[in-house]
Amino acid sequence: MRIVLASGSPRRRELLTQIGLEYEVIVSNADENVDCDEPAKLVEELSYVKAKAVADEYNLKDVIIIGADTVVANGNTILGKPNGEEGAFEMLRQLSGRAHEVYTGVTLLKVTDTVERITFHECTEVHFYEMTDEEIREYIATKDPMDKAGAYGIQGFCARYIKGIEGDYNNVVGLPIGRLYQEIKEVL
């Protein structure tokens, strides 16, 4: 059965390739305006919206579609991708010296004559060392924060500020790949 990743994220592609899955990419053009302020529900809903949009738009059959979405939550505040360098600065200032959560929602749509749906999320707690304003600006200058939830990527330059994590590292990168693989095995 074909596997389709409904995401243009290079990090998600790397993770799927890392575990040896053969897949193709069809980027979702879904409307991501979902009215929800609870991180776990938000990422689950957005992952479903993305997978369903690909299924509907391309009329796919005999396929498993993977939709995913990741957000950073700092207390009651959901941090998506930053709006410019000042937005990135403010986000990183909020995360500096604190712990926060990273949520990734995943939906698997198995489309045959019927549609089976599995949706789940993972949450990982990330602890940051204190960052000076100069260190934040230095990181922003790399442009790495600009396309990432919470304005950082754990796997790159920002790793120097990660004190520790509790949970799945790959979830923070953008896909809880171990759990995803187990769920795919169940639906194949």
Q: In the residues, how many domains can be counted?
A: 1
- Strand % is 25-35%
Radius of gyration based on Cα positions = 17 Å
What is the 3D form?
elongated
Uncertain stretches: none
CATH architecture assignment name: Alpha-Beta Complex
Helix content: 25-40%
Calculate the mean pLDDT score and round it: 96
**Could you state the oligomeric state of the chains shown?**
single chain
Distance between the termini: 7 Å
Structural class: alpha/beta
Show the helix and strand layout:
Elements: E1 2-5, H1 10-18, E2 24-25, H2 39-58, E3 63-74, E4 77-79, H3 84-95, E5 99-111, E6 115-128, H4 133-141, E7 162-166, H5 169-173, H6 177-187
Parallel strand pairs: 1-2, 1-3
Antiparallel strand pairs: 3-4, 3-5, 5-6, 6-7
Helix pairs in contact: 3-4
Briefly characterize the structure.
The chain has helices at residues 10-18, 39-58, 84-95, 133-141, 169-173, 177-187, and strands at 2-5, 24-25, 63-74, 77-79, 99-111, 115-128, 162-166. With 188 residues, it is α/β, with parallel strands linked by helices.
Task: Based on the model shown, name its key terms.
188 residues, alpha/beta, Maf protein, seven-stranded mixed sheet, 6 helices
